[in-house]
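Hi C.,

You asked whether I'd gotten around to modeling the 438-residue construct. I have! Everything is below, sequence then structure, no commentary in between.
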Amino acid sequence: MAITRRPAEAHSDSAAGRATLGALLRAQDFRRLLSARLLSQLSDGVFQVSLASYVIFSPERQSSPADIASMLAVLLLPFSVIGPFAGVLLDRWRRRQVLYLGNLARFGLGLVTAALLLGRAPEWLFFASALLVTALNRFILAGLSAALPRVVSPGQLVTANSLSPTAGTVAAALGGGIGFLFHQVLPPGTRADAALVTVAAVLYLAAALAAHRMDPELLGPEHHPDRPDLRAALGQAGRALVDGLRHLVRESRPAVYALGAVTAARFCYGVLIVTVLMLSRYTFNASGDTRGGLATLGTALAFSAVGFFLAAVVSPWFSRRLGLHGWMVACLGSAAVFVPALGLFFAVWPTMVAALLLGVVTQGTKICADTIVQNSVEDDYRGRVFALYDVLFNVAFVAAAGVTSLVLPLDGRSAAVVLGVAVLYAASAALYARTARR
């Protein structure tokens, strides 16, 4: 059934349907949806920094790699468990209500989380509340993406897909920056963490109110009386994922090899992120200087973010000259060299340079893998394969934190871990080069 569009949705900036940024931003419904996204992801950035501050940089506790593993599980596992099935629910619930009620629920849960911090409640209660906040985020992000075709014309969709997720990522980074600055102003401790969670909760409320400004029926979905019930639909989703996995293994070997390589790269990146967290907390700063530790971590993440941006700039050039497979091998192989060359110093500036280069090779590997999967998987299976890709990506990161928690000392100084990561990068490069040639 074709989607019925409102007049605002049919707007285009010319008779030929060419979409410009200005025409897009003049569409009121798109602006409202974009505002809801920006406020929601800004809140996410603030909340995630508050969670990291409490778990890793609280002066009242001696954080360990196991604490980091717990935090990453809270942040990422809901995406892995709920993500493949979120679409089934979003095709039944009014998406405007998902955005409104989801952010409203996160406002309430944020206040509860702040109260748990101030009341020094058992840690499992704090993590349970935070887990609910991040689980709702999966529905909200998916709802924002699914709703986009309802507020723009087909000719504007490419421009809208370029603008909205990028602006949301920038907003999340800005929220993280606000969180870092907040902790540079307030005395470190539980009260500062609770105050920051409260700020995130207020921003969630603002996102809910922004969504509430839209008409309840604006974002769909259309009503289909013949649609199967929810239990049957969830079962169909599970079977569809299994079919996607079967197709991937039997018919799309290049995609299998690419997913294996990007999963290994993500695992290595996760190990090194945990290492940098512990170095920032206990080696690069005095153990009691949580403000300095958080600032060092923020600097390292900023260097890594610059690397991600550079990868987007240089990957097309390198992939044209080396091929997708060659550029992926170059990324993995170069990491095997510079990780020990810079990481074994266990000093601030070599670590920052390594963070920059890691951003380049990690994102470069992902860009190659995305393209290989898009090119080698049939269109009928592509969505399901990318859902599996998302699960692999997040589980690898959490698994890296779990493994690292078993072997990394508290101060993060471990030559064995750094060399082990380098060996894993080298092995991944060699194996992928061999399969690509074959």
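If it helps when you're writing up: The domain at 228-438 is CATH 1.20.1250.20 (Growth Hormone; Chain: A;).

Thanks,
B.
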